[in-house]
Amino acid sequence: MVADTLPARTGRASRRRRSPRARREAVRGWAYAAPTAIFVIFVFLIPLGLVLRMSASDWPLMAGYQGPNFPDNYTEAVQHRLFWDSIGFTLKYTVITTILLVGLGLGLALLVQESTRWKSFLRTSFLVPSALGLASASLLFYVLYSPYAGPFADLMQSWGFTFLGTPEGALWSTVFLVVWRYAGFYMLLMLVGLQGIPDDVYEAAHIDGASRWQTFRDITLPLLRPTFALTIVLCVTGSLLAFEQFYILTKGGPDNSTMTIVQLIYNVAFQGQNNLGIAAALSVIVLIALIVINIFQLRAFRRPDEN
Amino acid sequence: MTSNSTLTPTDVLRVASTAAGHRRSPGMRIVLGIPYWVFTTALAVIFLYPLIWTTITSVQPRAGTSQTDRWGFGNYVALADYQAGIWVYLANSLFVSLLTVLLTLVVSLLGGYAFARFSFPGKNLLFLTTLAILMVPYATLLIPLYVILNAVGLSNSLVGVAIVLAMFQLPFAMFMMRISFESVPRELDEAAMVDGCSSFGALWRVLLPAVKPGLITVGLFAFLAAWNDFLAPLILITDTNKMTLPLAVANLRVQVQGVIDYGATEAGVVVLAVPCIVLFLVLQRHYVRGFMSGAFKG
């Protein structure tokens, strides 16, 4: 999808020899693309440039630009007492959700692949939560997990535990919410991947007398490689940027144990510190880390036959 | 209706599963018979239970009020009376969502047409830059956008939120619309132009009906994303009267120190979720198609 194969790369020489017709076409093309260009420049590229400048400037929330201070924001960001903790927690959360969602997505897809009435119902049941917003889903679980109003309130009272009261409980309760919300989405991507495997491969395996498990291990799993690549990249990127679920369920607590990196950026910018410069420096660090991680992932998942 | 040989993207799920049924692929019958039924029923219950529980308890009696022992819409009444009133927040959310949809549709319709049908200098660069929005974390851009919107007088503005949300919809929307236009034969609009249509006339009269499924998909995704978005209004909106619904419902918890109106929160979740679930069920095929094209770009 990335490469454009149209003859746009004809070189500078031909550009000069552009016929009036081609010039008219270029003008028309730009006229239709103008709104896109305006959006991309003013709402994407300029903010992107500004975040770089902010990260090198003294920029309190209320007072605005106060002059350059590079590299102070970066050193302060790295020295923030929650910097490494939040990175550690975000990575831990990312590994857990990625393993669970990719595994469950495949499991659910295998369970509901066929087109019976019951399986269609199951597919829809698994998919309905993914129509909800993450914030709505988090609010729903906030009440569900509540020791006062939730369905487990009495149980919690008599056993003396809370879902969100301990660091481990808060983590796993949030993981459960996220799995509930996204499992159907990953199931759908897996279904699309399974559908992409040609029938005759399975027929050949069947003729060769392969068992179900062998076929699954030696054919389905390897041929799902592009799907695994896509789902893992999506899941890793999404989880590294987790915010809403923790903002609503735990606010990063208890004792900052569920502080994700985006929550830290938000806190530094708008809660307490009110320092947009340090928040911007944190954002740039996250941005670079994400680009590096994505390049690394894409390289790792590239098939051996394509270079 | 749909045969296996002609795969229409609008019916992916059915085709996917029919094909699978024919090939009897392994793994899909790991669990057979009664254990399968018990297991999948339990799974369905886990997925549906939170939604059903919230809906039922949202109409349950409100503890500590005069309506203690009556079922009804007490929670919804409480939600309606909350701060500026639910109707204000609903109207804000609808305004932001519809404006986001409108902006996304107009920009991606024109842009998709440009990318699919015209060659102009800088075309590839512009397309790639649009897709690069995907690479940049949402949260990273919101802080400079907060500063920029302040500077141009769009601070605390629902229009500003919609512009930001539409920008984040562009990669998917542009990709979708470009593909939609490219799947329409060029002869169609060329014939229209030979017959005297302007390029815009050809787009409006001939191509628009042909790319309608793509537009519906883009519009659906833009609406759901805008309706559900939390982070952009959280950062860009500070005025209580301009909050969107997710923000207002989340704020129910911090309203009074230590006192959380769980019932009204549930009612808020239901109000938030119902349009999404209805849209999802009605437009399920487009929803799936959107995921499909999302999967292809990998």
TrEMBL record, chain A:
Entries under CDD domains matching the protein: TM_PBP2
Membrane-crossing segments per the record: 30-52, 93-112, 124-149, 169-189, 227-249, 276-296
Region called Disordered, residue ranges: 1-20
Membrane topology reported for the UniProt record: Multi-pass membrane protein
Protein location: Cell membrane
Source taxon at top rank: Bacteria
Pfam families xrefs: BPD_transp_1 (PF00528)
Keywords: Cell membrane, Membrane, Transmembrane, Transmembrane helix, Transport
Domain ABC transmembrane type-1: 87-297
UniProt main location, coarse: membrane
Family of this protein: Belongs to the binding-protein-dependent transport system permease family.
Protein name: Sugar ABC transporter permease
From TrEMBL, chain B:
Matches recorded under InterPro entries: MetI-like, MetI-like_sf
Keyword Ligase recorded: no
Membrane topology qualifier: Multi-pass membrane protein
Membrane-spanning residues: 30-52, 86-113, 125-148, 154-176, 215-237, 262-283
Subcellular location: Cell membrane
Superkingdom field: Bacteria
Domain ABC transmembrane type-1 per the UniProt entry, residue ranges: 90-283
Keywords: Cell membrane, Membrane, Transmembrane, Transmembrane helix, Transport
Main location: membrane
SUPFAM superfamilies the record matches: MetI-like (SSF161098)
Family per record: Belongs to the binding-protein-dependent transport system permease family.
Protein name as it appears in the record: Carbohydrate ABC transporter permease
